[in-house]
Structures are given as structure tokens and as C-alpha cells.
Specification:
Elements (H helix, E strand, L loop, with lengths): L2 E5 L3 H11 L4 E6 L9 H7 L13 E2 L1 H10 L1 H9 L3 E7 L2 E10 L2 H14 L3 E5 L3 E7 L6 E7 L4 E3 L2 E4 L7 H7 L6 E6 L2 E10 L13 E3 L3 E7 L4 E9 L11 H10 L4 H6 E3 L4 E3 L3 E6 L1 E2 L2 E2 L4 E3 L5 E2 L7 H15 L1 H5 L1 H15 L1 H22 L10 H12 L4 H11 L5 H4 L3 H13 L12 H9 L1
Parallel strand pairs: 1-2, 1-10, 2-6, 10-21
Antiparallel strand pairs: 3-5, 4-5, 7-8, 8-9, 11-18, 12-15, 12-16, 12-17, 13-14, 14-15, 18-22, 19-20
Helix pairs in contact: 1-5, 1-9, 2-5, 3-4, 3-9, 7-17, 13-16
């Protein structure tokens, strides 16, 4: 059994703590922010101060991969989430539906607070609130340095067989490594060039929510618009705009924001049935980033790994972050026995598993966002980006369109969307390939429909 210190008590850290403790490991979670304060879901959503998770008021979803991890490891968490008003939604895409697979729809802080309370009660887990890991303790007795403890802001030193960085997008791991005189992590990043504006709503009495789609988004030349159901009759509507859009500040004004969303076919039905229950939240500095602790010379140190968003995170439009973190945490718990007996080899094997199983989602998102950046740049020039000519990109784009009416292709798309199969596996099925190929033979151009609203109408909303 291992002694584990987890820096960060968000979804990744909490999931890891729970799954590790249930395998007999001793876990301390160090979290700078305080616990959820209230008793109702709205208390959690609106009263929990979470500066350590600046994305907490943006749209979130637990995809089928996350629910599968919970079903396998902690079904009591699913029961608690449902009792809290979190909604299950079939894992579907267009005409496809995956039997027995579901997503969980919730405001982030409602789901996180539910998991946090369960972890607080879990034997083998100690929560250290209002504290933070500020540096790591390193032993240099072997050929490769080994992290064997964590120094806290409070002045305490916690010895450990494994230190887990679950600090999310704002991970302090590079500082820890530098202060300890270790080689830097290997970082790869891509600036996505846009920001999010999100607002939450509650269904009016007597109104039903429109059908939820995952991914519930529409890409315009100059923006992307998203609609996500959530818990207890709430939902969120989001829009992304280029950081270079001259009208980007206008839509932080509620009347303009609402007028625009009423004009978008995806969000218009939601606007008809909902009343705002939050301010408009901004999330900027959107980037794809992968951080590896193994370079050409091997692990930079033993006894330390990055988890969830601290290891790799992508543009959150497809809602993959929590689900990748749960999957990552599951593997960490399954392999953690090795950390105490072979701390250097454990880091190398964990990096390899992460790259093989989660890296594909990073790579595909980087490719997709390169096209998305081009789309926004063309849109700001009043132009339309030409259809993709890369064969694989054309195939994937066609699959998403074809899935709307073809259940076989829809099942494949759902597996990709919900992180249950990588694109090469899902779209490599001969039946899927034949159907998408036939679709492309009669729809070779893959032209997107005209923007609704148009750029001119968008600018009119911005200046009204």
C-alpha cells in the first residue's frame, strides 16, 4: 500500500482519492479552497467560492466514460448524484444510441460538492482545506531523483510514496520541479484563440427542456454556440468568440447576449423556456496543453505524476475534461501499488499509459482546433473557410453529418463523443466506413449551411 499526497481537490483529485482509498491506500488531499457551504444544490452552485477552479461556472457534463468509471468503481456516487438532482442522459449522437451508457448532466459545483462530501467521509482519506503544496521533498540517493514528500503552505511536511499533481490548468508543477533543481516537464501547447461567455437558466414552471444533444453545439463562421442541460431543471447556454473580435466585449451585456441567443436556432428554444439565474461568466486563456514528466533521458523524477487537467487538457467545448480525469484517476488507483516499490518505473509506465490512452484525445483536439482557429480568422475577415481537403478530416466531418440519420454511424460517433472508443477504432469499422463513404460520394462538398444569424446580424446585436 502507498502513502499518497494529492495536490488539488477538484474532480481529478477527489476521484483519485476515493478510488485509491477504496483500494487500501492512505491519501491526503491538500486543497486551497474551502468546503461547499450549504445544504441545497443551489447553495453549492451559487454559494461555493472556488477561485481554484475558475471554470466552475462554465458548462460541464460527465460523459459516458466518466459514468462508466463510477459504475465500475463507485456506484454509490452515481446514486448520490441522482439523489441530488443530477440527470442521466442516454449516450447518443444523432440517430445513434449506446445501450446501457449514459451521461450525467449537472452544474459543475453541484456534482463536485456531492463527490466532495463522499470523499470527506471516506476512511483512509484526510482533507487538508485552506492549505497548498508549495514545493516537493526530493531524495537523490539513486541515479534518478525521487520525490518523497510535499511541503505545505502551512509549513508542514507530508512524507509520501507518491505525490500527485491534480492542480488543474493552473498546475504549479513547473515551479515545484524548478525549485527542486529537477529537469523541466515536457510541455506542448496550442492557444485556441477564443473565450467563453456562459449563463445559467432555470426552466419556467410548466415548461419542459428542449431535447438535449451531446455535443450540443453549432459552429458559426465567427462564433460557436452551445446548450447543455444540467441538474434540477437548470441549463446553461454558452458562446465563444475570437479574442480578436472587435465586438467581443458587447456580449457581456445581458440584453445583447440574450438577443443573440434568441436568434440562434440551437438556443432559441431554450431561451423560450428559461429564466436567467446567474450572471454571465467569462472564461479566457483557452488552450490545449499536454505535460509529460518523461523526456528523452527518462523520468525527470520518480514518485510524482500529473493527473487530469494538470497532465493534459483540451478546449472544453466537447466536455471531455472531467471524464478524462476520472479515467486517469481510475488507472492511477489500479497501478498505485507499484509507486512504493518502483517509484521511477511507475512514473515511466504511467506516462506511457497516459500518452497511449488519453493522448489521442489531445492530438485530435489540436487538429480540430487548428481548423477552428482558421474558421474564426476567416469569419472576422468576412470570408468562409474552404471545406477541409484532408481525407481523414473530411471523413470525420462527414461522419458527424451522416450520424444524424444513420444509426450505425451514429453509434460510432457516440462512442467517440463519449470517449468510449478512439476515432481510428470507431470509424475503422467496415460498416461505418462503407456508410460514410457512400454519404461522401453523394455529398462531396460538405458545405456548411449559411450562418444563422449572419455576421451582419451579429454586429447589429452588438451595437443595438
Amino acid at each position: 500500500m502507498a502513502r499518497v499526497v494529492i495536490a488539488g481537490g477538484g474532480f481529478a483529485g477527489l476521484a483519485a482519492a476515493l478510488l485509491l482509498a477504496r483500494r487500501g491506500h492512505t491519501v491526503t488531499v491538500v486543497e486551497r479552497d474551502g468546503p461547499p457551504p450549504g445544504s441545497t444544490p443551489d447553495d453549492d452552485a451559487h454559494g461555493w467560492h472556488r477561485p481554484g477552479a475558475p471554470q466552475s461556472h462554465q458548462s460541464h457534463v460527465l460523459l459516458a466514460r466518466a459514468r462508466r468509471v463510477l459504475a465500475d468503481e463507485a456506484p454509490d456516487v452515481i446514486d448520490a448524484l441522482l439523489a441530488r438532482g443530477v440527470r442521466e442522459h442516454p449516450a447518443a449522437a444523432g440517430a445513434g444510441r449506446l445501450e446501457g451508457e449514459y451521461a450525467l448532466m449537472s452544474r459543475r459545483l453541484v456534482a463536485e460538492a456531492t463527490l466532495r462530501r463522499i470523499v470527506d467521509r471516506e476512511p483512509g482519506v484526510t482533507m487538508r482545506c485552506g492549505d497548498a503544496v508549495v514545493k516537493v521533498q526530493v531524495s537523490r540517493a539513486g541515479d534518478v531523483p525521487v520525490v518523497n514528500g510535499a511541503h505545505l503552505l502551512s509549513g508542514d511536511l507530508l512524507y509520501a510514496d507518491l505525490v500527485v499533481d491534480a492542480g488543474g490548468r493552473r498546475s504549479a508543477l513547473p515551479v515545484w520541479l524548478a525549485d527542486a533543481g529537477l529537469r523541466p516537464a515536457v510541455d506542448d501547447s496550442q492557444d485556441c484563440g477564443f473565450f467563453y461567455l456562459t449563463r445559467y437558466y432555470r426552466l419556467r414552471p410548466g415548461c419542459d427542456a428542449p431535447p438535449t444533444k451531446i455535443p450540443g453545439s453549432v459552429a458559426l463562421d465567427y462564433a460557436t454556440v452551445l446548450a447543455f442541460g444540467a441538474d434540477n431543471g437548470t441549463f446553461s447556454l454558452s458562446m465563444t468568440l475570437s479574442v480578436d473580435d472587435p465586438y467581443r466585449r458587447a456580449f457581456r451585456e445581458p440584453d445583447r447576449h440574450s438577443a443573440f441567443l434568441r436568434a440562434v436556432p440551437l438556443t432559441a428554444p431554450w431561451m423560450k423556456v428559461g429564466e436567467p439565474i446567474s450572471d454571465i461568466s467569462l472564461m479566457a486563456r483557452i488552450a490545449n496543453r499536454r505535460r509529460r514528466l518523461v523526456d528523452q533521458n527518462g523520468p525527470v523524477a520518480g514518485g510524482v505524476v500529473a493527473l487530469g487537467d494538470a497532465a493534459l487538457h483540451t478546449n472544453p467545448t466537447l466536455g471531455r475534461g472531467i471524464s478524462l480525469a476520472f479515467w486517469h484517476a481510475q488507472h492511477l488507483a489500479q497501478a498505485a501499488d507499484e509507486a512504493a516499490v518502483d517509484p521511477v518505473g511507475f512514473v515511466e509506465r504511467f506516462d506511457s499509459w497516459t500518452n497511449d490512452n488519453l493522448g489521442v484525445w489531445y492530438d485530435t483536439q489540436v487538429a480540430a482546433d487548428a481548423a477552428g482557429i482558421g474558421r474564426l480568422e476567416a469569419g472576422l475577415r468576412g470570408e468562409r473557410l474552404a471545406p477541409v481537403d484532408d481525407p481523414m478530416a473530411r471523413f470525420v466531418a462527414a461522419a458527424f453529418v451522416c450520424a444524424q440519420d444513420d444509426n450505425v454511424v451514429g453509434d460510432a460517433v457516440a462512442k467517440v463523443v463519449h470517449l468510449l472508443a478512439p476515432p481510428t477504432e470507431a470509424f475503422g469499422d467496415p460498416a461505418v466506413a462503407r456508410r460514410v463513404g457512400a454519404f461522401l460520394s453523394t455529398n462531396p462538398d460538405l458545405e456548411r449551411p449559411a450562418d444563422t444569424p449572419s455576421r451582419a446580424e451579429f454586429e447589429a446585436f452588438a451595437t443595438s
